[in-house]
Each structure stands twice: as C-alpha cells, then as structure tokens.
Design brief:
Elements (H helix, E strand, L loop, with lengths): L2 H12 L3 H22 L7 H12 L4 H12 L8 E8 L5 E8 L2 H14 L3 E3 L8 E10 L5 H11 L3 E5 L2 E6 L4 H10 L6 E8 L3 E2 L2 H15 L4 E6 L1 E2 L2 H8 L1
Parallel strand pairs: 8-10
Antiparallel strand pairs: 1-2, 1-3, 2-9, 4-6, 4-7, 5-6
Helix pairs in contact: 1-9, 2-3, 2-4, 6-7
Length: 249
C-alpha cells in the first residue's frame, strides 16, 4: 500500500478534533458542490460526485449537509466561484507531492501553497514535474485481521479489480477509476467492511524515508492538508507503519 494511503487510514482511525472536523466538512461540502456543478447532480452518472459523497460519508458528514451541497452545485450559485488547480513540488528527501486545490482566489492559494513548501523544507515545482509519477486509481482498504486474502481477492477480482496488495495487516484493492464503484459495491455485498474507499493518485514509485525525514515530510503534508483551499494531497513516501502511527499520535 502506498505510504499516503496508510497515512490517511491511520489518521481516519484516530479521528479528528471538532475544530478540524468542521474545517474538513467545509472542504468536503465544497468538493461535492463543485462536482455537482461540473458533472451533474446524479452520483449514478457523475463519478467525481459519487467519490466526493463517499468521502463525506466516510467522515460521518450529516446527510442533510451532503444534500445541501449537491443542491448548491446543481443550481449553480457559489460553486461558480471556485476553480480547480493542481500544484506540484518536492518535500524533504525528494518526496514528490501533488496538491489539489479548489479556490475562489488563485493568487491567495498559490502564495499559501508556496509558503508552506518553503517553510517546511520543500520546493514548489513547475506543472508536470511530478505528475508523471502518479496515476489515477481506485483504492479500497480492507482490514486483513478480519478477512483472509482469498475472500478479499475472490470478491475484488471477480468485480473487475486490477490487483490486491497486502501490506502488514491490511489489504489494498486497486482498480481503474471506471471500475471503482463496481468493485467497492461488490466487496460490501460480500459482507466485507471497508476501512477506506476512494479515487486517489497512486505513485508509480516510492521514496523510503528514515524517521527524521518522515517527521519532516509529515509536517509539510499536514500543513498543506490544513490549508482551507487544499482538497487533497498525494505523495510518494514509503514510511514504516509504526513510524506513521507514532507521528499521527
């Protein structure tokens, strides 16, 4: 499993403070609204919207909040103010980082992202500098202590998954974006509980980090994720799970 997927799973399990959860709900609502504006209000035909809704539900966002966000997007309104921008850069030890932003002020977002990279020992790069090292995939995480590999593999592959990778006590099911929903639904229909399910950017290669570089990298990742305009952060680090647990704690 990619380091970033493990980091996201660990943080999700540990939960967030009320203040950070409020900020997270705001980001999730914005993503739903923009997805509904750009691709329509029907998640059955709008994969981006379906993914945004799935993420919101995974974070226990209230149903009424989700519905309001969809309605705002379907009816235009403040969704028209936002544009999607991707920033690319390098963190400590040359870790490649991609930052997805939804913003109503391009100059403000660019300055903030640049400042975060600079402050934490990173470097903002030109568009395309690191994007080639990632590919859009569906990623579904299953607790390997609850289900055996054959059970997960059978349900996933039959539904169209590309691969099932074991990393420690977890399985990561990888799919093409077009097959993500079908594989996710098939696993759930088979009675398999999902720890995490999302469309994400999976690195083609990873950078192994020692504990010192790991802590530096997590500081820049956390600072980016804490920015109001940042929706998603992807990185190609490889850090031992026990180190990630310690940092998250």
């Amino acid at each position: 499993m990619s380091g970033h997927s493990k980091w996201a799973t660990i943080k999700h399990k540990k939960g967030k403070t009320d203040a950070r959860r409020g900020k997270l709900f705001s980001k999730l609502s914005r993503a739903i609204t923009v997805a509904a504006r750009e691709g329509g209000a029907d998640p059955g035909t709008n994969l981006a919207l379906a993914n945004a809704i799935e993420k919101a539900r995974a974070e226990s966002m209230p149903k009424e909040n989700i519905e309001r966000a969809i309605q705002r997007g379907g009816g235009g309104g403040d969704a028209d103010q936002y544009e999607s921008i991707v920033y690319e850069g390098y963190g400590p030890a040359g870790v490649a980082i991609m930052v997805e932003v939804l913003t109503d002020n391009r100059n403000r977002s660019a300055a903030e992202v640049r400042n975060i990279f600079s402050k934490h020992g990173g470097t903002l790069a030109q568009p395309g500098a690191v994007a080639w090292g990632f590919e859009r995939r569906g990623s579904i995480v299953v607790d390997g202590t609850k289900y055996d590999e054959d059970t997960v593999m059978a349900a996933a592959i039959e539904a169209g998954a590309d691969d099932v990778v074991q990393d420690g006590a977890e399985f990561e099911v990888l799919t093409q974006p077009s097959e993500f929903a079908a594989v996710r639904d098939a696993l759930q229909a088979a009675g398999i509980q999902l720890e995490q399910a999302e469309l994400t950017m999976v690195p083609k290669n990873t950078v192994k980090l020692d504990e010192d570089d790991a802590r530096k990298t997590m500081r820049i990742i956390d600072a980016l994720e804490d920015s109001d305009d940042v929706q998603e952060v992807y990185a190609n680090f490889d850090i031992p799970e026990e180190v990630l647990e310690a940092i998250a704690g």
